[in-house]
Design brief:
heterodimer, A: 365 residues, alpha+beta, OB fold (Dihydrolipoamide Acetyltransferase, E2P), 2 domains, six-stranded mixed sheet, five-stranded antiparallel sheet, elongated, disordered N terminus, B: 304 residues, mainly alpha, MetI-like fold, two-stranded antiparallel sheet, 2 strands
């Protein structure tokens, strides 16, 4: 359907100092953001973090208290929703119940006075594999199909930016996985900038090129999924994107790219580059459960080792997850892949180890 | 169907069904009885009456005199037509006034919603006759409303439209239609409110997102989704308004006589029961046909 496009999409979005205040709270508390054209961008955060409000401001459904929104070089802050070349896939789909599928998909094109709207709408329905449902009403379709109709209804207009407001939230797990792959495929096929709002970190990491983690109306950290996961900048990001073990540390010696730190009297090694330059107090060392290894007590290969007692072990087929209690009472989570190595038993004394390269250091909040 | 779970006895379907056989009939019985006694029997009695001949002193005899229908229609067709026009105008006015009001109450009134709904039905606390009589005072020749219409020259517009014949508002088609619109407004507002209140505002977001401006959002999304309310509101207004005889009697003149007034006069003063019964039947049939066509045209059965 892109071949019919006469207008060259720019699809570049810029948010400058964006605020949205309500009577009693601040939903969006100063957001600066550049979304490059053609990217798959995810706004990730818990409910109430302001991600949906941000999306609605981009769509023009909500007015910012202050700040500017640019689409390419155009300042669209003061334009109305219907004047913006932006389309939304709503969480509730919001398919018009009185119109059949083809009329739902063609709604935007008819408003734009596109002459061959019916052909284009059918092409969009083919893209989401629902061409045979054109004459049916939304309520005759399953949730997953309605979701795809909502997607077709949005992308058929060839917007510069497609906004997705938790579009997979209402689907069951299996369907959600399928749609994640489907969405990614469609995004690559049409080349439109996608901005995807979600509270599901797995979904964000699976689909997006760039993820912005939001918290309390601000962007806490922005980056590629792997970078965010492996090197979170804050405890919030570390815990929101999966599980982390956090140990309080103090720097004892710096030697080139290796820094020695102490945690509860144990000497550990971290990469010097991982230590944040500002906020040197209240540092914490973070290690993901799957980066921890169970090693023998007299091992000499690993530099970072801790010993403790297994207080819980749960086997799920792919891996075993242990809770290992440290002498100071803290329980660390360790995930051992089911790769044939011996599994630890409850109450056993074990030694856990990790590569300094796999740890990250975060400052105080 | 043949799935058997060990240790669980299949539910006996007949035990459930036994209750079900008579329950609907028992539930329907009071309404059926009521309708039979107060609607079906009177309808047949009225039908019989319309085909009788005779007079009040010597009694009426059923003679299957269908001629009465032709005579009644031939004599009173202007009053019929006028009733339909007045009721139609009043319905349009209540729709134009009621729709924005219902929208406001449903979506913009916040914590005043209940209060406003009470205000909409508040006129019912006063008798229908008293409310209509109040309009005599509102439209009185020396009152501010008449003064306003005269001062702004709107009275000339009404004269040009044929809604008033002199420079007075009272005792005119204008007064009758106003009275009808006023009296039946709640019947329009309440179904509209129910329909609009149910309307999911996210459809408005979706329409705006899909390039529809305010007018198109209304026309392509809000209006079609509110059609069930529009249809029930217009029916609840039009049907009683077409048969109304109070407004034209109290607010009109001899040139604004509506069919309800004629039936009233035939039954209670002229005592020509067959003509009155025939007129009632013609009115009923006309309304049934019009409503049938209207509901089919509105296509409400297509809506959710």
């Amino acid at each position: 359907m892109v071949e019919g496009a006469t207008r060259k999409a720019t699809g570049e979005l810029r948010l400058v100092e964006l605020f949205r205040e309500y009577d009693d709270f601040v939903a969006v508390n100063g957001i600066d953001l550049d979304v490059p054209p053609g990217s798959f961008f995810a706004l990730l955060g818990p409910s109430g973090c302001g991600k949906t409000t941000t999306l609605r401001m981009i769509a023009g459904l909500e007015e910012p208290t202050s700040g500017r929104i640019f689409l390419g070089t155009d300042d669209i802050t003061n334009t109305r929703a219907h004047q913006r070349r932006v389309n939304t896939v709503f969480q509730s789909y919001a398919l018009f119940p009185h119109l059949n599928i083809i009329d739902n998909v063609g709604f935007g094109l008819r408003q734009l006075k596109v002459a061959n709207w019916k052909t284009k709408a059918m092409e969009a329905l083919e893209l989401v594999k629902l061409a045979d449902r054109a004459k049916q009403k939304p309520r005759q379709l399953s949730g997953g199909m309605q979701q795809r109709v909502a997607l077709a209804r949005a992308i058929v207009n060839e917007p510069e930016i497609l906004l997705l407001d938790e579009p997979l939230g209402a689907l069951d797990l299996k369907l959600r996985r399928e749609m994640q792959i489907e969405l990614k495929r469609i995004q690559q096929e049409v080349g439109i900038t996608f901005i995807h709002v979600t509270h599901d970190q797995e979904e964000a990491m699976t689909m997006a090129d760039t993820v912005a983690v939001m918290r309390a109306g601000r962007i806490e950290q922005l980056g590629e999924p792997a970078a965010l996961y492996d090197k979170p900048a804050t405890a919030f990001v570390a815990n929101f994107l999966g599980q982390s073990n956090l140990l309080p540390i103090e720097v004892t010696a710096v030697a080139g790219d290796r820094t020695t730190v102490a945690s509860h009297g144990t000497s550990l090694v971290v990469e010097s580059g991982a230590i944040p330059t500002e906020a040197p107090d209240g540092l914490r060392l973070g290690i993901r459960p799957e980066k921890l290894r169970l090693v023998s007590a007299n091992d000499s290969v690993w530099t970072n080792k801790l010993s403790g007692e297994v207080t819980d072990a749960s086997f799920n087929g792919v891996s075993t997850t242990y809770l290992v209690r440290m002498p100071w009472g803290q329980e660390l989570t360790v995930t051992q892949p089911n790769d044939g190595t011996a599994r630890a038993t409850l109450g056993e004394q074990v030694t856990i180890a990790w590569d300094p390269h796999h740890a990250f250091v975060i400052g105080a909040d | 169907m043949a799935l058997v779970v060990p240790g669980v006895r299949p539910v006996k379907r007949r035990a459930v069904r036994r209750w079900g056989t008579f329950t609907p009939l028992i539930l329907l019985a009071p309404a059926m009885l009521w309708l039979t006694v107060f609607f079906v029997v009177p309808t047949f009695s009225l039908a019989s009456q319309s085909l009788q001949t005779g007079d009040i002193d010597n009694g009426f005899v059923l003679t299957w005199h269908f001629q009465t229908y032709a005579e009644a229609l031939g004599r009173y067709w202007p009053q019929f037509l006028r009733s339909l026009i007045y009721a139609g105008s009043a319905t349009v006015i209540t729709l134009l006034v009621g729709y924005p009001l219902a929208w406001f109450i449903a979506h913009r009134s916040g914590r005043f919603k209940t209060m406003l709904l009470v205000l909409v039905i508040a006129p019912f606390f006063t008798n229908f006759l008293i409310r209509t009589l109040a309009w005599q005072i509102i439209l009185t020749d020396t009152g501010p409303v008449t003064g306003f219409f005269r001062a702004t020259g709107l009275i000339h517009v009404l004269q040009w439209l044929g809604l008033v014949t002199s420079d007075a508002l009272l005792y005119s088609p204008f007064a009758v239609i106003s009275g009808l619109a006023y009296n039946f407004l709640p019947f329009m507002v309440l179904p509209l409110y129910t329909s609009l209140e149910r309307l999911d505002l996210r459809y408005l977001d979706a329409a705006g997102d899909l390039y529809a401006n305010g007018w198109n959002t209304f026309w392509k999304v809000i209006w079609p989704l509110s059609l069930p309310g529009v249809v029930s509101g217009t029916l609840l207004t039009f049907i009683p308004a077409a048969g109304d005889y109070i407004n034209s009697k109290l607010l009109g003149n001899t040139q604004t006589v509506m069919i309800g007034q004629v039936i009233d006069a035939q039954f209670l003063r002229v005592l020509d029961y067959p003509t009155a019964a025939a007129l009632s039947f013609i009115l009923m049939a006309t309304i049934i046909v019009m409503v049938g066509l209207y509901v089919r045209a509105a296509g409400t059965e297509e809506l959710v």
